[in-house]
Amino acid sequence: MAEALSRSEIEERLGELPGWSLDGGRLTRAYRLDSHFAATSLVIHVAQIQEELNHHSELTLGYNTVSLSVHTHSAGGAVTGLDVELARRVEAVAPAHGAR
Predict the structure, then answer these.
(1) DSSP track, 25-38
(2) Strand, coil or helix: 100
(3) Dihedral sign, Cα of residue 81, residue 79, residue 5, residue 77
(4) CB-count exposure of residue 14 (10 Å: 0-12, 13-18, 19+)
(5) pLDDT value, residue 48
């Protein structure tokens, strides 16, 4: 089972994840893209990452936007290293879709 991160550990990791924040006990990020097609493409890539990690976020596709919110259910809804890894992997692919 994944271990909950302390508040200071979360803040330290967020320093390496521009645009991500802690909101309501979850890591969150919203991306704006140049088109709805680009946003849809990013969602597909995020879904692939989630399947690879077997760790899933709340993922919302809007008009030219993609929003993620993640915490670890098996750790009592706490933020864990799994959440940080998911955020890092999404951050790595988002620029290829023109996300900002």
Answers:
(1) TEEEEEEE-SSHHH
(2) coil
(3) negative
(4) middle
(5) 98
CB 72 within 8 A of CB 83: yes
Dihedral sign, CA of 25, 72, 30, 99?
A: positive
What 3-state class would DSSP assign to 24? coil
CA 48 to the chain's CA centroid: 13
Tokens matching residue 44: 């597909």
Q: Please, what's the b/e burial string for 78-89 (b: 16 or more CB within 10 A of its CB; e: otherwise)? A: bbbebbbebbeb
Residue 1 banded pLDDT, cuts 50, 70, 90: confident
Beta bridge partners of 82: none
DSSP 63-87: TTEEEEEE-BGGGTTB-BHHHHHHH
Contact 81, 3 (CB under 8 A): yes
Stretch 56-80: mean pLDDT:
96
